[in-house]
């Protein structure tokens, strides 16, 4: 099914299910979450479409893009495919330069140490890749799925632009899945680049699990997710300590939170909108962290660190955090990667972590930094 993706389609290929949506009956771009949920719900009933699909941006005032597709195909875990071979290396423009990012981390660390009200800020950087020819997203997706079997590979159309505009990525982070009255959220935070050989890899993973800085960085995310979900759930199960999960390039601390809804009419989209943005992509407290991000990131995040997924008329759905991704427009790709900054963060380590996060897409592109 992944091989059938065409520009303009929506794809979400996860560990157990794949969804490919084509065509467009309607678009909802309403930023107000309550209004968005209501409009999508009404359109799903009016059109009898099986699902709505799309993306919410990082910025709460910006327009989301949810689509009622014309046709939807669903299957199990996607089959894997070969990595695309790129003929020419792209021109690479970091935004900002790596040294400037490290400097910004240093300034945010200083701020976190002096402002007791601010606990965590996620600071991101971008890399622009300019190719000679328009990027063929369809040829990238099979390799991305193959390389990220436990993650969620996605491609979402971002609306009209000459040559199209899309968000593509492979996220390891499930924001929210609702199946009937059962909900699951699997926040990730606290990361380290994978080791170069098995022994080194084991060592960095053990160090991550033992790191007070990473445990603290993870804890604020779990606390925030629990605080949002608690009022909606009659039962919420939260493991006492995080587990380790790995992507091909990064180890993460991970907590799988499960719950049972009090009111099964609360949709997956409503819950995802309530959770977004968690401190895994923004910080704590949210408003203060947003302000620090606006001050230090020299670009608009757009849909990076937003939410991507689907929901149906019954309220079921699956929404993942839009990370390890790039916005693609014609021959240009803008890749994003962020890291959770804590008062004891080391700028060089956060820079290395974002480098490793970029590798999710760079590996699929066959591009080395
Ligand atoms: C913000 C990103 O990752 C988040 C998810 C997992 C681990 C993270 C971390 O350890 O900083 C981030 O919170 C990103 O990949 O751009």
UniProtKB/TrEMBL annotation:
EC number of this enzyme: 5.4.4.2
Class of enzymatic activity (EC top level): isomerase
Record key words, sorted: Isomerase
InterPro entries registered for this protein in UniProt: ADC_synthase (IPR005801), Chorismate_C (IPR015890), IsoChor_synthase (IPR004561)
Domain of life: Bacteria
Pfam families: Chorismate_bind
Catalytic activity line of the entry: chorismate = isochorismate
Residues of the Chorismate-utilising enzyme C-terminal domain: 99-357
Molecular function GO labels: isochorismate synthase activity
Family: Belongs to the isochorismate synthase family.
NCBIfam families the record matches: isochor_syn
Name listed for the protein in its UniProt record: isochorismate synthase
